[in-house]
From TrEMBL, chain A:
One GO CC term on file: cytoplasm
Gene3D superfamilies on file: Glutamine Phosphoribosylpyrophosphate, subunit 1, domain 1 (3.60.20.10)
An example Gene Ontology biological process: proteolysis involved in protein catabolic process
Keywords: Cytoplasm, Nucleus, Proteasome
Protein name as it appears in the record: Proteasome subunit beta type-4
Primary localization class, coarse: nucleus
Keyword Nucleotide-binding: no
Organism: Spizaetus tyrannus (black hawk-eagle)
Pfam families xref list: Proteasome
Subcellular locations according to the entry: Nucleus
From TrEMBL, chain B:
Underlying gene: Psmb6
Active-site residues, as the UniProt record annotates them: 9
Protein's name according to its UniProt entry: Proteasome subunit beta
Family: Belongs to the peptidase T1B family.
InterPro entries the record matches: Ntn_hydrolases_N, Pept_T1A_subB, Proteasome_bsu_CS, Proteasome_sua/b, Proteasome_suB-type
Function per UniProt: Component of the proteasome, a multicatalytic proteinase complex which is characterized by its ability to cleave peptides with Arg, Phe, Tyr, Leu, and Glu adjacent to the leaving group at neutral or slightly basic pH. The proteasome has an ATP-dependent proteolytic activity.
């Protein structure tokens, strides 16, 4: 008669405790090798900051056109901005494959809505709210979409600018920035808005360009080609590629 | 998974007016031992569609087999040769869904009657991008500079650009193989056009 090793009883739930076994909550459970993993645990090709600014009559968002593979500037003309419909646009930083997945889902949603033919289209607030739920639910399954998204739009005479990140943290603000932009560009943008309570489109553009230039100087994962998407009552327009002129005069002073 | 995330290989694909040219080195390593020095990393998934495989040999072979099966089925249903874009999308769907388990950097290249020669890249992480030319694998890091320089002069004149482009894969691959320990052996090239697939091997004295 064979005496084999006592086999571990099956776990109560995936990653959960099994009787008689040491249970490490959060660590890979006894069922770790049994069920398929489909989680984004590490971003691969990533995009850096996205900036957003509200102005009088609309919203402008901007992102550079680069996908970094670690420190390698691997893809230098990819678009990280998405025009959802005539009232809404979004820009994403973080994993580009997850952004492409999101783009697929959103594009299909917009098509399905067109098919309803009731004249309604998604408002920026609706997209923001929906995306927050998606991102939060994914994070709750420890399988996040590794992106930080800025949603901008102009709907019913009001500008909208919202932020959602991979944890499901969501808020609205008159200026937004993700990644390095949050440290470098956000203070600048807020300072300008404190002095002038509302900007014109041109002033907003200039502010964005200034901030993108500073990010190009100081963010090692940035690039000097970028796109800009502007939402006004006329609709959403994606402009680009625009190139930043860098000023290196100070090099001569040192 | 415990394997190193950096793909082992140099692979390259270039698009031109009538088709594509693809190339790869021929070394498969287990750690620092060369398990196979005459590997064929250019794998057909259909008559005029190939994939260049980098990363884990097991993963890429498995995914390529699955895609070849799906494509064969699809082309029977379609009753015409499948689009290169379809093949690329099939790769992407698998590579994105199983991104945490797979170590696969793939370049899909081929010819179809609709859009001619096309090159699509599906790097690790599972994004899909169409590019006029693409490189991949650990050896590719060493030749980004070379490629940037090689492709700039031809930019303004399309005719010259094509000859320049098509002449780039052998020297580019040779340079990468010289510097990357995980790439080496012979250069395998294939040209895919409407007429068919022409394969060549550059070995030893023929290496640029």
């Amino acid at each position: 008669m064979e005496v084999g090793r006592a086999r571990a009883p099956p776990p109560f739930w995936a990653g959960g405790p099994a009787p008689g076994q040491t249970y490490v909550p959060g660590g890979p459970g006894p069922a770790a090798g049994v069920l398929p993993f489909t989680r984004t645990l590490s971003p691969m090709v990533t995009g850096t900051s996205v900036l957003g600014v509200k102005f009088d009559g609309g919203v402008i968002i901007a992102a550079d056109m680069m996908g970094s593979y670690g420190s390698l500037a691997r893809f230098r003309s990819i678009s990280r901005l998405l025009k959802v419909n005539d009232t809404t646009m979004l820009g994403a930083s973080g994993d580009y494959a997850d952004f492409q997945y999101l783009k697929q889902i959103i594009d299909q949603m917009v098509i399905d809505e067109e098919l309803l033919g009731d004249g309604h289209s998604y408002s920026p607030k609706a997209i923001h709210s929906w995306l927050t739920r998606v991102m939060y639910n994914r994070r709750s399954k420890i399988n996040p979409l590794w992106n930080t998204v800025v949603i901008g739009g102009y709907y019913n005479g009001e500008s909208f600018l919202g932020y959602v990140d991979m944890l499901g943290v969501a808020y609205e603000a008159p200026t937004l920035a993700t990644g390095y932009g949050a440290y470098l560009a956000q203070p600048l943008m807020r300072e300008v808005l404190e002095k002038k309570s509302s900007l014109t489109k041109e002033e907003a553009r200039d502010l964005i360009e200034r901030c993108m230039k500073i990010l190009y100087y100081r963010d090692a994962r940035s690039f000097n080609r970028y796109e800009v998407a502007i939402a006004t009552e006329k609709g959403v327009e994606v402009e680009g590629p625009l190139t930043l002129e860098a000023n290196w005069d100070i090099a001569h002073l040192v | 998974p415990q394997r190193s995330p950096s793909p082992q290989t140099t692979i390259m694909a270039v698009e031109f007016d009538g088709g594509v040219v693809i190339g790869a080195d021929s070394r498969t390593t287990t750690g620092s031992y060369v398990a196979n020095r005459v590997t064929d990393k250019l794998t057909p998934v259909h008559d005029r569609i190939f994939c260049c495989r980098s990363g884990s040999a097991a993963d890429t072979q498995a995914v390529a087999d699955a895609v070849a099966y799906q494509l064969a089925f699809h082309s029977v249903e379609l009753e015409e040769p499948p689009r290169v874009r379809t093949a690329a999308r099939l790769f992407q769907q698998t590579c994105y869904r199983y991104r945490e388990e797979l170590s696969a950097g793939i370049i899909v290249a081929g010819w179809d009657p609709r859009r001619g020669g096309q090159v699509y890249v599906v790097p690790m992480g599972g994004l899909l991008l169409r590019q006029p030319f693409a490189v991949g694998g650990s050896g590719s890091s060493y030749i980004y500079g070379f490629l940037d320089a090689a492709f700039r002069p031809g930019m303004s004149r399309p005719q010259c650009q094509e000859t320049v482009r098509l002449s780039v894969p052998p020297p580019a691959l040779a340079l990468a193989m010289a510097r990357d320990g995980s790439s080496g052996g012979v250069i395998r090239l294939a040209a895919i056009t409407q007429a068919g697939v022409e394969r060549r091997v550059l070995a030893g004295p023929d290496l640029p």
